[in-house]
Amino acid sequence: MSTDSAELPDELPPVQPPSAGFILQLFVVPGVIVMAVVAVWLLFGKLATSEQDWHGLVRELQQPNQHRRWRGALGLAQILKSDLDSGDMGQHLASNLELARTLSDVLHQELRRGSQEPDSLKYQSMLARTLGMFDLPEIVTPPLREAIQTGHDRDVRKDSLAAVAVLLGRLSEHGQPVHDDDLFGDLVQISTDDDPLIRQLGAFTLGLADAETARLRLAVMLDDADANTRINAAIGLARQKDLGGYRVLRDILKSGSAPHLEQYLATLNGLAAIKRLAGQFSAEQRSELSSLIEPFAASSADPRLRIDAKQALQALNSAASPAH
What distance, in Å, lies between the first and last C-alpha atoms of the chain? Predict the structure, then answer.
């Protein structure tokens, strides 16, 4: 299930500057200069080391020794994650063709081997999750499409679906939505799986697909036998500015006081979906939703839930004002 989380920053205690001017001049300013020089030196050293490391780790993937291949895959996943976190200061490995092609080829090979050994399956899952960090859908989606198919290990399918969702979500946020009818067709097919967990992930991922086929399938999934699948379908439609999941969003709020993690997350995501759609609801729908949200805003013991409820109420009230 999707979780749109936003952590509130902790306030730092005030820092008092030293009162003696000569201390500032003689020690603090030179110290800052030295620290800056050291930081630049460390930065370039780190970048050079990282570049050398990823080439070495790619070579590890070609080794027959399983432990070396595992170490290489784990190291590449860590480097890619660190590089993404570095933003513009990183090497932009998410766009590295050589690296993406190598990892895609390795996953293809592992899937064709068909090993059901636990270590091999974990290796496939790690490769799939790593591919989700690339911004090269034309290269990484073919092996992920293969990995989500019926017949592969459940955890491998799950992690591969999650990787596709991460990829679609990130590129959409960057203004580069993926348009891949073959991929979307596979996701629609996967969403009919007998396994409720696969259907849940399928609904979540379809909610990130900018395609009419995805919206049509999500509308059908609003009546799925599995509650979490219905919720993910409604939230997915809300992401695409579609009101079709209104009754499911309403039902989330009606049962939102249940003390379970899944219900808690469903309520948070339901509130986010309502806030996103606030301007599209009818006056009657806004009134009904407001009456269901008010208890959360007034008396929820959870501060996150209370804040999100207040924000959803504000969005509904603003949409109802004459200015709108």
Answer: 32
Q: Is 304 exposed, middle or buried (0-12, 13-18, 19+ CB in 10 A)?
A: middle
For 78, residues 6+ apart whose C-beta sits below 8 A from its C-beta are none
What's the longest Cα–Cα distance across the chain?
74
Q: Given this model, what pLDDT does residue 251 score? A: 94
Task: Supply 278's token pair.
Answer: 């606030």
Highest mean pLDDT (candidates 17-26, 48-57, 309-318): 309-318
Residue 171 tokens, joined: 């590129």
Domain count, the chain: 1
**Is 64 among the domain residues?**
no
Report the percent of the chain where pLDDT is more than 70: 82
Residue 59 lies inside a defined structural domain of this protein: no
CB 63 within 8 A of CB 72: yes
CA 98 from chain center: how many Å?
Answer: 24
Q: What is the mean pLDDT of residues 71-99?
A: 87
Report which residue type is found at 113.
Answer: R
Expressed as residue numbers, the domain containing 261 is 248-324
Residue 140 lies in a domain: no
Give CA–CA dist 64/55, Å, rounded. Answer: 17
Q: Please check the confidence at residue 14 and state whether its pLDDT lies above 70.
A: no
Residue 276 inside a domain? The answer is: yes
